[in-house]
């Protein structure tokens, strides 16, 4: 069980670093807010941050 938790934490940190590297601080803020909105089951926050992430992805492509 601790090994699985450690692996999940490492993946989360790696994904967070990837977003920070590719999309900057705004990307990490949008990702964290999306996660918080999903966890709180607040569709308004999740929707706004999902749109922000899509805009960041469209801008880089």
Description:
With 61 residues, the chain is mostly helical. Helices cover 93% and strands 0% of the residues. It has 2 helices and no strands. Helix 1 crosses helix 2. It is flat. It starts with a helix and ends with a helix.
Order of helices and strands: HH
Largest sheet: number of strands, sense, barrel closure: none
Average residue-wise pLDDT:
76
Radius of gyration in whole Å, from Cα?
13 Å
Q: Percent of residues in beta strands?
A: under 5%
Low-confidence stretches: none
Please count the helical segments.
2
Structural class: mainly alpha
Percent helix: over 70%
Task: Please describe the topology of this protein.
Layout: H1 2-40, H2 43-60
Helix pairs in contact: 1-2
